[in-house]
Amino acid sequence: MASILLLGGTEEARRLAQMLHTRGADFLTSLASSIGEDYPGPQRRGGFGGEEAMAQFLQEEGVKVVADATHPFAAIISPTAKRAARKARVRYLRLERRPWRRSTADRWIDVRSLEEAADSLDNGSTVFLTVGTGGLQPFLLRRDLHLVVRTIAEPSLGTRRDVVVLRDRGPFTVDGERALFERHRFDAMVTKNSGGDATAAKLVAARERRTLVYMVKRPRGQPWANARTADDMMRRLRRYL
After folding, report:
1. Integer Cα distance of 101 and 212 in angstroms
2. How many C-beta atoms surround the C-beta of residue 14 within 10 A?
3. Entry pTM
4. Tens digits of per-residue pLDDT, 84-117?
5. Can you tell me the distance from the alpha carbon of 102 to that of 87, in angstroms, rounded to the nearest whole number?
6. Is residue 103 domain-resident?
């Protein structure tokens, strides 16, 4: 039984779990992936099996509030969680960090999808991809591109043997990103507008080198954000502690 169901997968979710654990709150963190670092406090891993199954889970566990702190690009789980919470008559709150904002020195091209970004890249470009393991396919089809991919998990590259893979997890430093951009001399970078501080240093390095950035916009149809930070969400959860 848990009063608070925390949907995790972000830096903010981990911080929120730590605060809830420190306060001795009655909560459970749900993580979609079966692998990855543990969070403070109790947790479950894997999906719910859809809206109906999630609503049933909320009722059976006696959940009073769903605290959704999933990734801004988790386009399926957040709308599903909101509908399931409504069906189970449970409060739903969403934490979504603010997106990055361009400065006058940035060379950003806003795109709606990874496919649009892949189609827009100039022939023969050296491209830095920070789009996650699930977003590589449109770029792997471009045999003319020289790809440098940074991911946490090992990516599936199909038949490509010419892709440079950097296995790493943020936060990243500005000096480290400067060195990376200097070493590979990227013509362009493709990234999702996830916001946050952990990976923002790459934007500084791109800005300084005048590197073209294809910035993938956040998906449409996400629930309204009630909080922008873990502290904001914690204030909203006080009544459930």
Report:
1. 15
2. 19
3. 0.88
4. 999 999 999 999 999 999 999 999 999 999 999 9
5. 39
6. no
